[in-house]
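Input (DNA-binding response regulator):
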Amino acid sequence: MMRVLLAEDQSLVLGALAALLNMESDIEVVGRAGDGEAAWRELQRLKPDVLVTDIEMPGLTGLELAQRVQRHALPVKVVIVTTFARAGFLRRALDAGVAGYLLKDAPAEKLAEALRSVQRGGRAIDPQLAIEAWSEADPLSDRERQVLRLAGEGVAASEIAQRLNLTHGTVRNYLSEAIGKLGVSNRIEAYRLARQKGWL
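Output:
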């Protein structure tokens, strides 16, 4: 029996995924979490075989959750199920050791098949997205990404510096680097472009 933990911040989607997977005779949904930090706690408590997570969640994103799983070498396979058909997200997911990346508009039976494949040590990646993922590299460093995300959400440079334990000047430098790399004229355009490409 494959033990699965679901992490999804939309209650309706979470319930639908649980109902769908519980219909399979060889899959048991052992836990549900509505945000990344709750999912992290449940991962350690329940020790499931597979974590199925969305990308955009409060607290930790699905990608940050996958990175934390990788850093702590937890023996769980991570599968991302998302609406974001963006090559940048897939590249970052693969770098974080994710074993599956599926889109929410895929046929329902594909999810159970993908989980079985991942459980056996395989990968389950949307094929069209996989092709796109290697066509354009993400130019941002992790720090540039963190700073740009916060700036794009309207957080002032002084507060970004405080949150990330950086100096005000260092925050400005990271923003300037990100703007330069993306070939745009300001932080808002940089944020929009990076979001569109899946780099944030």
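The radius of gyration is 18 Å.
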